[in-house]
What we know:
Elements: H1 3-20, H2 26-43, H3 47-64, H4 68-96, H5 117-124, H6 140-153, H7 161-206, H8 210-235, H9 242-247, H10 249-258, H11 261-274, H12 280-293, H13 296-313, H14 320-333, H15 344-356, H16 371-396
Amino acid sequence: MKLWVKFLIGLILGFAAAFIIPMTSQQSTAVLNFIMQIVLRFGRYMVVPLLFFAVMNSTFQLSRSKNFLKASLWTISTILLSSLLLTFIGTISIIFIHLPRIPISVEKVTAVDSIDIKNMLLQLLPFSSFNAIQEGTFLLPAFILACVVGAGSSVDQTASKPVILLTESLYKLFYTLMEFFTELFSIGMIAVSCYWFVTYREIFSTGIFTPLLLMLTADFFIVAFGIYPLLLHYICKDKRPYRVIYASISSILVSFFTSDTNLTLQINMRHSKESLGVHDQINGFVQPLFSIFSRGGSALIVTISFILIWRSYSSLSISVTDILWIAMTSFGLSFLLSGFSSGGTFIALTVLCTLYSRGFESGYLLLKPAAGIICSFAAAFDAVTAMYGTYAVGVKMKEIHHLPVKSFI
C-alpha cells in the first residue's frame, strides 16, 4: 500500500472519530491533546540523528566531488526565489480580492512568543559542539556541525576513511529506522486529524474565516498545480512535472495537519529518494536546508493576513509604499523562523504587527482563533516547495535517477 494512502486512511478515520466520539468536556479534549503530543514526539524521534548523519554524508560526498559550492548556490537561489514568488502571489491575491472584514475582537492581549534573534545566533555557536545536536526543534546548529565535520573529512580522505564508513553506516541505519517510524506514524495520524478537527470545528461552523481559507486554498492549488509545474517544465525541461506533486501527497497531508516542518522533513526525504530518485548526496543536503530556511508559505500568509487586518480596522486604502513594506518585511521574517518547527507563521504575524505599530500592535488578535489553520496552510506551502525545489536541484546537478510512477512509495 502506498504511503500516502496509509496517511489518507488515518486522516479519514480521525475525522470519523471526531464525529463518533463525544468531545464535549475539557477533560476529554485534554486526553486527546495528550495522545496527539505523544504521536508528534514519536514522529519527530528520528529527526536529529537522521539530519546530522545525512548532512555529514552529503557534505563529504559533495566536497569530494567539488560540487558543494554549486549545490549550495542552486539550493540558496531556489529558496530565495521561491520565497519571493510566494510573497508576490500572496500580495497580488489580497490586493485584487477584497475579503470580508473580520469582526473586531475584544480579546485581551496575552503574551506570545517572539523571534529572539540574539538567542538564535548564540545557539549556532554553543559552548560545546555536542550541544548542537541536543536541540530537537532548532535544527540549524546540528546542520552546521554536520557540514563542518563532513567538509573537514574530505580534506584528508585517507585518514578520515573510517569516519566516513561509520557515517554512511549510521545514515543508512537511521534512515531505515526513520522508515519504520514514518510507517507507524500513519496510524498516529488518526489522533492528529481527530484533534485537529475537534479543535477547529467551531471555527469552520462560524464562517467568519471561510473567505480567507478559500483564498489560501485557491492560492495553494495555483502554486502546486500551476506555477511550480510550469516552472519545472521550462527551467528543468521536465515533460512530466506533475509526478512531483504526486510524490508530495504524503508530505502535504502530514504538514497540513501537524504544521510541523521538522516532522515533514522525514517524509520529504523519503519521497525525494524513493519516489523521485534524488541521490543521497543532494537529498541529504538540500531537503534539510529547505526545511530550515524555506518558509515562503509563511511570507505569503503573513502578507495576506496583515492586509486583511488593516482592512478590518480601517476603510482607508493602503499605499503602494505600505504594501511593499509589508511584503518585504514578511519575506525577511520568513527566514528567521527556523527556530520554530510549528506556529512560526502566527509569530511572524505578531512581530509584523508590532513593527508596523500605528495602532496595529494587537491586530493579530483578529486571526488568533484561526492561527492553527493558517499555520497549517503555511506548512503545506513549504512542504510542496521543498519537494519541487529538491527535485529541481537534483535535475540541475544531474544527481537524479528517474523512477516510474508505479514504483513510487
